[in-house]
Amino acid sequence: MKAVGYKKSLPIDAADALFDFETDKPEPRGRDIRVAVKAISANPVDYKVRKRAEPPAGETKILGFDAAGIVDAVGPDVSLFKPGDEVWYAGSIQRQGTNSEFHLVDERIVGHKPKTLSFAQAAALPLTSITAWELLFDRLGVAPGKSVDPRTLLIIGGAGGVGSILIQLARRLTGLTVVATASRPESSKWCLELGAHHVIDHSKPMKDQVAALKVPPVALVAALTNTDQHFAALADIVAPQGKIGLIDDPASLNVNLLKGKAVSLHWESMFTRSSFQTDDMIAQHKLLDDVASLIDNGVLRTTLDKVLGKINAANLKQAHALLEGGRSTGKLVLEGW
């Protein structure tokens, strides 16, 4: 089968940073399903792993997490899917990735693809949907429901992949006031189109901008990017007894800034359940099926921004370069082989 991989952690403009190669088709065992991959999307975790995790000598690592495709074969213990089912998922950081024609994945972290979306449209969503859902409902403890919620959710980096789905979830499924941040006109417009009540500029002092909106107290903060850069400002903005959730990789944080207000800090990693084989691992299967239903009922929309072409090393290198530049809006997708 065709695949894209790497052997050494190299700058993305290096010839062998990513390369096309042929490898054996994997065989499903246990609760694994084998998926014929039709479309994938790129995420910051792809380039972070490429830059930080060099494979053992002589081995080739296949990257990729988001995928949409068709079940090709199933392991003996599979009960949720059968060959021919259209699926979507975000994979596991412990295994070979989705940048391959056929991919093995545990059925407990796979959902049925939304019927109303193409494979490309669907591939944009699994990782960011799981991350945003778990961050909002599991980590920050927001209860789904459209009853009035006298709090504001501040989303730092609203135009990115996770921010793009988090805005929709918070606006469509809760009564929170949603304030997103963006630093460019096109990204600000994107956030408003997705449902943010207000957008402020995170490249400028944020506290006065929030105050000028006269919104309810900022009791919840989703710090999605550059948390170390913004942390002092967020500690100043967040309401007493508020919550800050984050997903990125700050080198260090002065958590003492949160003590006076009794603010709690919450980490979200959508790979936790699959990495540790938690008892509630199947929650991601149910979550993805719920999101698919919301999409098919017109509540949520895809966050696909660009299809960069077929799944190959050249196009994946372009996707990595765009993500590393930190100025992409929505999701970058590759489709077909």
TrEMBL record:
SMART domains for the chain: PKS_ER
GO MF entries: oxidoreductase activity; zinc ion binding
InterPro entries, sorted: ADH-like_N, ADH_Zn_typ-1, ER, GroES-like_sf, NAD(P)-bd_dom_sf, Zinc-ADH_QOR/CCCR
Domain of life of the source: Bacteria
Keyword NADP: yes
Keyword Transit peptide: no
Domain Enoyl reductase (ER): 13-334
Keywords of the record: Metal-binding, NADP, Oxidoreductase, Zinc
CDD domains per record: AL_MDR (cd08252)
Cross-referenced NCBIfam families: adh_fam_1 (TIGR02817)
The family this protein is said to belong to: Belongs to the zinc-containing alcohol dehydrogenase family. Quinone oxidoreductase subfamily.
UniProt name for this protein: Zinc-type alcohol dehydrogenase-like protein
